[in-house]
Amino acid sequence: TRFLRGAWSCLCSDLLSTVLFSVHSRKLQTRYQQKNHSKMYNKSVAITGSTIEKTTKYDQFREDKIRMELYRIILSLYDEGYRTFTCNLYSYIGLLGADTIVMLREADKCPEIILLAAIPETAFPADTDKLYRALYDDLIKQADNKETLPEKEVFSNVLACNHIVCYYDDFSEGIGQVRASGIPYTNIRKMI
Asked: What confidence category does residue 15 fall into, taking pLDDT thresholds of 50, 70 and 90?
């Protein structure tokens, strides 16, 4: 019986240590996964480009192409773990990007997407098309958060993101700053 008790005790001890190791290992794995999960889904995107006043005339065909590209890009970035999208609402692409984000959220394609509206301190251009003005007013209401920034800080806010979606001419100062930042970017103007 001593032998059986000793064997049983060793067996129980081995079994207990295996179970405890397994439980401890699972806790570590869960903690690691939670850490990586939060890192994976804690990425941000900035959407910016030429200002509304630099947009010459309303072009429905071009806007539809831009919206289709934005839809595709935002959905793809969302699938890669990007959740926070900061849109410069004084830019043409920022307005269209914010509108696309709201549509994706309402369609439940990107339920966890967060829309941050970056607004320069300067007044919205008075001569802006009424359609853009109405869109701007609506998007301000639907943004999860609004941040009014001095004109000089708007671009530095863009550089704080993990990816930039922009709409710039190849030789503009804006695309030069984006390229110099080293942050991954997508220039939609090259796609349409």
From this structure: very low
Least Cα distance to 159 among 51, 86, 77 occurs for: 86
List phi, psi (to 5°) of 113.
-70, 140
Sheet holding 82-88, edge to edge: 145-149, 114-120, 82-88, 43-49, 163-167, 185-187
Rounded to 5 degrees, φ, ψ at 103 are: -65, -45
Give the alpha-carbon dihedral of 109, 65, 91, 77, to 10 degrees.
40
Q: Is 92 helix (H, G, I), strand (E, B) or coil?
A: helix
Distance, first Cα to last Cα, the chain: 84
Exposed/middle/buried for residue 189 (C-beta within 10 Å: 0-12, 13-18, 19+): middle
Residues 6+ away with beta carbon under 8 Å from 132? 52, 92, 95
- Is this structure's pTM higher than 0.70? yes
Residue 86 — φ and ψ, nearest 5°? Answer: -100, 120
CB 165 within 8 A of CB 189: no
* Nearest C-alpha neighbor of 46 from the set 89, 2, 80: 89
**Residue with tokens 């996964």, as numbered in its chain:** 33
Mean per-residue pLDDT of the chain: 77
